[in-house]
TrEMBL record:
InterPro entries: AAA+_ATPase (IPR003593), ABC_transporter-like_ATP-bd (IPR003439), ABC_transporter-like_CS (IPR017871), P-loop_NTPase (IPR027417). The lineage of its organism: Bacteria, Pseudomonadati, Bacteroidota, Bacteroidia, Marinilabiliales. SUPFAM superfamilies: P-loop containing nucleoside triphosphate hydrolases (SSF52540). This is ABC transporter. Belongs to the ABC transporter superfamily. It comes from the Bacteria. PANTHER family: OSMOPROTECTANT IMPORT ATP-BINDING PROTEIN OSMV. It comes from Marinifilum breve. Keywords: ATP-binding, Nucleotide-binding, Transport.
Amino acid sequence: MITTQDIQQKTIADLFDQYPFLPGFFEENTLEVDGQINEKLDDFLNILDDEEEKENRAMDKAQVIESMAEYITQMLAFLGEDEDEGVNSITLLPGTNKSGEKEQFEELTINKSEIVCIVGPTGSGKSRLLADIEWVAQNDTPTSRTILVNGEEGDKKWRVTSGHKLVAQLSQNMNFVMDLSVYEFIELHAQSRLVEDVEGVIQKIFEQANNLAGEKFSLDTPITSLSGGQSRALMIADTAILSKSPIILIDEIENAGIDRKKALELLVGEEKIVLMATHDPILALMGDRRIVIKNGGIHKVIETSGDEQNLLSELERMDNVIQNMRTRLRHGEIIRQEDIGF
Ligand SMILES: Nc1ncnc2c1ncn2[C@@H]1O[C@H](COP(=O)(O)OP(=O)(O)OP(=O)(O)O)[C@@H](O)[C@H]1O
């Protein structure tokens, strides 16, 4: 909540710096700053106490400052940037499994820049756990779990306001229907987020997306003609860089056409909490920890050991062989024993 005291004594230049959307308020209210950018807001607005001005605007200086503070507060909430926004951790408190038995852990806290994988047989409840986190469950889902944000009882604001979205979902099916180029798509999203350096953000997302995608694409490629891997790469880069949501939930990243290791590094590098449900051993071992789900409940939480991390590179090598086979078969080649290499 921004108060009139917070802004009154600051210069207009400082306020514009701090709140890049504020010039919009000045324009709307026909407040022309011109050469007075370095004046304190309070001094600048003295002109409004002039009788004629007061009549024209039907608002005096105090009312303008008040409405400006309100505008800043609302814009910050809309952009998901209020001061209390910083999410450093989420904590899961146990509920019950499908048989109604208490889950086998006491409390599980996941911090910023951590990757936690969720593994378990088909139908065991992996997606349900992701859904509980998205809903910031408060003992009000089929599992009776409770999710704390920064160690505190979840605030229901996370469920409703768009700017407050706690979670961004990356799902398997990302079909674009809009008739836009890659450039226009990112530009639209950047503008809706009111970022200052739209051009810089477009370049950054474009570069990162191409860094993840197997096959390169250009800024003028229509998004409808991106391949599955390219669209996923674009969405991951876009989410990592533009989404304000502190938590990313992933229901499996398909292997085709995307460098999954780099994708996770990009998300974690942007200080996100990443939770990923997966059946893939390589992804499961890329996490710092993995939650094992059994019969709807959290059965175990396992830290990825050094030995497992070493095994990961071996698994990646085997995966590369399979990927390579796939590409060659697709191109009509004949495979021989020596191609397999182990
Ligand atoms: N603790 C629970 N209590 C009651 N119902 C549950 C519980 N956990 C999961 N379920 C229900 O079990 C069903 C299967 O769960 P879910 O879809 O999450 O499985 P999954 O592990 O994601 O499966 P898949 O690997 O096939 O994607 C869902 O209907 C879900 O709501």
